[in-house]
Design a protein that fits this description.
Elements: E1 3-6, E2 8-11, E3 14-22, H1 39-62, H2 70-84, H3 86-97, H4 103-119, H5 124-146, E4 169-173, H6 178-183, E5 189-194, H7 202-209, E6 214-216, H8 221-224, E7 230-234, E8 239-242, H9 246-267, E9 283-288, H10 293-299, E10 305-309, H11 324-337, E11 343-346, H12 363-366, H13 379-384, H14 386-399, E12 405-409, H15 415-434, E13 443-448, H16 451-455, H17 457-460, E14 466-469, H18 471-479, H19 497-512, E15 516-519, H20 530-536, E16 540-543, H21 548-556, H22 560-564, H23 567-572, H24 576-585
Parallel strand pairs: 3-4, 4-5, 5-6, 9-10, 9-16, 10-11, 11-12, 12-13, 13-14, 14-15
Antiparallel strand pairs: 1-8, 2-6, 3-7, 7-8
Helix pairs in contact: 1-2, 1-3, 1-5, 2-5, 3-4, 4-5, 11-14, 14-15
């Protein structure tokens, strides 16, 4: 029977496909696709784990003391029965052979199927056996974790291949960590649904960068949607339709076709210069996460990279940080790929919703921080790891010998941090000079994403060559909203008067000081804000490559002088969004 689930729309468009549940478990489960030819080896891993668990359970039963309750032995019998039940291990082979999941993912997928059958049983005793099933599966997962790891897991940074069969697939999960999103970035999934998250949670940001529909904060979606259910994701309205009727399915397929035609029409603008109706030239840059993303940036018509999020080089590595040479090769690859266009590399922004697998030196002290968004993250973490930080600075400087590189420092708030950062940069330059390594002087910029930095801007501009406004965190910190928490996501408001006034003030002060200023947060790629940002004086936008065409279209249709005359009324209004919409209609 068809039903709907409601969440937050975070990436526009329509996705239609079969649901793939990425189950949450007390045991960490790797999710990746295997080559079709490797299915037998994965099934062998599953059988080996089953044999190990069977031996453990048999040994436990054999060693029970004579005065042990009979129920304990009976419970072990139940676990052994479940272990050998073909509904569990036998049906798990289906996910390996047909969907080409790795053994752990296949097992957790089958657990979801059976667990829901238990939930629907009327007999209370049988319903309670669900806990026994979960315990057996956890034993199997732990046995596989103890055994030899699958040799078929993709290398760090590799993309899973499309072995999902002929039907399109959508991912359904409680949450998807940024590292997992990176793993799935070029995968088979045509859409994402998560129980938790906000409009600027990292799951949402990466979904937009992939240009696929996504709904987050859908609460119980991963519990009420079943494996293989047909699902429609309406990324415009934030609605998920499960088991749609044929009429509804055809309606959304029509919307998909319309969306594809609109994308094709916009793509024709990719080589058109971004110039407003009154002749103002606008710079449209790309945000990227890995060197290979530079190709998509160029294809989209970007005139440079405004934000290279270097932290993604540090993820999916089981805690082992990339060395200087590895980072250098990645930065150089991006710089060379951009063919002389500028590349702005942000130093690692680890923390908050982008933790490392293990937090190196500071792991024990900070992995359980009560509020990681306010903790040891971004430049704070880099300064606490001086060896790592100097390695990254040297790698970025070395890449500057191959093209135009700019250095961006995240989460600046204190002048003492600024001085320590510039000292570290000076030492990195000295070390490279002593080693006769080529590099050039790079422009150094500050991310304005903390209200204190916006208010301190005149002092910061004495130290920095340019500034880049990170609107995602600026909104979060100005409004005291955790942008990844769906419970307060409705209060995350880029139209808030305080947010708009901070952004406008930052742009005005930077331009008055003769310093470059850009916006690299999500507002830069949202057409709803294009005219307003242009009226504030912004001439440099950085966004996901997939958003460049729609923003360029908006720029080409804008008369900045006309909008500049309306700016004051919008900024002084108690309801800027409503006042802006009035101006749009005028």
């Amino acid at each position: 029977m068809s039903f709907q689930v409601f969440g937050l729309p975070v990436s526009r468009g329509v996705a239609i496909g079969r649901a793939v549940l990425v189950a949450s478990s007390r045991v960490d489960v790797a999710h990746y696709f295997i080559e079709e030819s490797r299915a037998d080896e994965e099934i062998a891993r599953l059988r080996a784990a089953r044999d190990v668990v069977a031996s453990e359970l048999t040994a436990l039963q054999r060693d029970l003391p004579e005065d042990a309750p009979a129920e304990l032995s009976a419970l072990l019998d139940v676990h052994l029965m479940l272990l050998h039940d073909d509904t569990l291990t036998g049906a798990t082979k289906h996910w390996i052979q047909e969907r080409h999941y790795n053994a752990e993912w296949a097992l957790s997928a089958q657990l979801e199927v059976i667990a829901r059958q238990f939930d629907e049983m009327e007999d209370e005793y049988l319903r309670d056996r669900k806990a026994d099933l979960e315990q057996v599966v956890e034993r199997l997962l732990r046995a596989m974790a103890r055994g030899t790891a699958s040799p078929f897991a993709p290398a760090p940074g590799a993309s899973p291949r499309d072995f999902g069969g002929e039907d399109p697939l959508v991912m359904v999960a409680n949450d998807v960590a940024p590292a997992d999103m990176l793993q799935f970035k070029r995968s088979v999934f045509t859409g994402f649904i998560t129980d938790v998250g906000g409009k600027t949670s990292h799951t949402a940001i990466v979904a937009r960068s992939m240009d696929i529909p996504a709904v987050v904060g859908a609460r119980e979606a991963s519990r009420i949607i079943r494996q293989d259910d047909w699902v429609i994701i309406d990324g415009d309205a934030g609605i998920v339709i499960v088991d749609p009727s044929p009429i509804v399915l055809e309606e959304y397929r029509f919307r998909q076709r319309q969306s594809d035609l609109e994308r094709e029409s916009l793509s024709r603008l990719r080589h058109t210069p971004a110039v407003t109706m009154d002749g103002e030239r606008v710079e449209l840059l790309a945000n990227i996460e890995m060197p290979v993303d530079a190709v998509a940036a160029l294809d989209a018509g970007a005139v440079g990279v405004g934000l290279f999020r270097s932290e993604f080089l540090f993820m999916n590595r089981e805690g082992e940080l990339p060395g200087e040479d590895e980072q250098f090769e990645a930065y150089r690859a991006a710089v060379i790929a951009m063919n002389g266009l500028p590349v702005t590399i942000r130093t690692v922004d680890i923390g908050a919703d982008k933790p490392l697998d293990r937090m190196s030196v500071n792991e024990l002290r900070h992995e359980h921080a009560l509020n990681p968004a306010l903790g040891l993250r971004a430049i704070r973490w880099s300064l606490s790891e001086p060896g790592m930080f100097r390695q990254q600075l040297r790698a970025i400087l070395r890449a500057s010998a191959y093209g135009k590189v700019k250095l961006l420092i995240p989460m600046v708030a204190h002048l003492s941090e600024v001085r320590l950062t510039l000292d570290a940069l000076a030492r990195a330059k000295l070390q490279l000079a002593d080693a006769s390594r080529p590099f050039t002087d790079v422009a150094v910029g500050a991310m304005i994403e903390i209200p204190a930095a916006a208010l301190l801007l005149p002092a910061l501009l004495r130290y920095f060559d340019f500034v880049s406004i990170g609107t995602n965190d600026l909104i979060q910190y100005t409004l005291a909203i955790d942008r990844a928490d769906e419970a307060v996501a409705h209060l995350y408001d880029p139209w808030h008067p305080a947010v708009l006034q901070l952004i406008s003030q930052t742009i005005r002060l930077a331009r008055s000081a003769g310093k470059e200023v850009s916006v690299c947060g999500e507002m830069a790629g949202d057409p709803a804000f294009t005219e307003l940002l242009l009226a504030m004086g912004l001439r440099s936008f950085s966004m996901h490559p997939s958003q460049i065409a729609s923003i360029k279209q908006r720029v080409l249709r804008t008369d900045v002088r006309r909008w500049a005359g309306r700016l004051a009324a919008v900024l002084e209004s108690d309801d800027p969004e409503a006042r802006f919409k009035e101006a749009m209609r005028a």
